[in-house]
Fold this sequence. Notes:
Blueprint: H1 4-28, E1 39-42, E2 46-49, E3 73-77, H2 79-82, H3 92-100, E4 104-108, H4 114-124, E5 131-136, H5 147-150, H6 153-162, H7 190-202, H8 225-235, H9 240-262, E6 266-271, H10 275-285, H11 292-314, E7 318-321, H12 323-335, E8 342-343, E9 346-347, H13 349-367
Parallel strand pairs: 3-4, 3-5, 5-6, 6-7
Antiparallel strand pairs: 1-2, 8-9
Helix pairs in contact: 3-13, 4-9, 8-11, 10-12, 12-13
Amino acid sequence: MLNRTNVLILVVSTLLGLLVLEGLLRLATPYPITSNSNWADDPQLGYVLDSSFPEVDAAGFRNDGLELNDADIAVIGDSHAYGIHVFAADSYPSVLASLTGKKVYNLGISSYGIYQYKVLLDRVAESQIETVIVSLFVDNDLALYLCHVTTTEYWQNYAKLNDIQLPDCSDYDQEVAGESKQYSGLYGTATWQLVQKLLNWINKKPAPEDELMLASIDPPVLTNSERIEAIWTLSSLKNPVVATNFDNSLRFFREAKIKREKVDGNLLFVLIPSRPEVLHSSLIQREAQLSPEFASAIGELLATKERYIKFFTQESIDYIDALPYVLEAALQNETRGKKPFYDGPHPLEAGYAAYAEAALQGLQDMQRSPY
Length: 371
């Protein structure tokens, strides 16, 4: 039986061991560990990647050995273009490079949205790059959290000079928006982050209400109140912030088309489907019974997407919807019993490959376009 001295020695030894581990982890990882530990400030974009990290170029993007001026294709987007949760070689710009034999430059960074896309389009629209691809993720490219960009000096001045309305950010709280630069307690330590990752890896299993594996559920009724609220908040045009950002995006994209035409360059939009949208399509195929709440929320998301499609058609802007490609890949993944298709809201390798297949088809369609 342990006496008090032994217990004290055990506790002290454990604490010292954890302190040593924490010190070693801090030497090997960025600290403090937060959602933006690998970011560097940028006056126009808000942030780019820290160029000291592997596979990040001097401009702050996920490219290894390729410069923007040498690229044939530039891919603009958020985490879905960046390729979160997979190696750089498995990101969809890299897969697209393999499919086309072209040099593809990745301009995607997590949590980017239409205001960053505007800045990046301005940087590349009149360049000699053959094709500029915008990966438009309707699910959250118009969301409130873009206020961390629009409240900057650059965008405030831009709005005044160009007579555009920016979203009302009076309700935006950056400290609770998931982008806080500081964390307190155990959550901010490198040791806790390591433990959390190990636990997530050990306990990783698909959530039945979120995965495609619903064929055995009878009746397969879907209800997820948090997801329903998120869809409305992030993508519904009934949300004033989303509506303002949507209107601005149409102006930005119209200007980009004009600039690309001046240099005889291509512009392609790839509509990236959200996980709820893929799930919805899967359930519709299976004639599943959806909850009215979920069907209504998805309707809001699809309405925004349809507005974009109508705009692209009217403006003769090339686009392709990646949903059919992602859905097919997801169902094949399920049938073959492979590892999970998604990791949170993002796909894994098979999903990014589906994005690339869609983009490839979009490029091929442009060559046959009558425009």
